[in-house]
Amino acid sequence: MANHNDFGKIAEDLAANYLQKNGYKVLSRNFRFQKAEVDIIAEKDDFIIIVEVKARSTDIFMLPQEAVTKTKIKSIVSAANYYLEEFNRQNEVRFDIISVLPDEQKNLMIDHIIDAFQAFDAN
């Protein structure tokens, strides 16, 4: 596995642990539908939270959350819709981004962006 894949896995593990420590119930990780993937699907306060985890080793070129393009949003929304239908979930849905970046001491820092985008942002 390539180094960036290792870092991505570490970031997803960190994000899942962060969510659990903050009262979220992780329902699924790396949920796939066709070519789309949702990193984390969680539940809290009667919401289904669809979480895209973005990690970068530096923010020199762009912040991790800036890599969530309209195309990526469309893909995430498609997979989320399939999940809701497949598991017959009627909950309200929220789309979050968890950004992971190292600080100056190389400690990984989480930025949880709640309600980062809406399903209609995919259009």
From TrEMBL:
Keywords: Endonuclease, Hydrolase, Nuclease. It holds the Pfam family UPF0102. It comes from the Bacteria. GO terms for molecular function: endonuclease activity; nucleic acid binding. InterPro entries: Restrct_endonuc-II-like, tRNA_endonuc-like_dom_sf, UPF0102_YraN-like. The keyword Iron does not apply. Belongs to the UPF0102 family. This is UPF0102 protein SAMN05421786_103107.
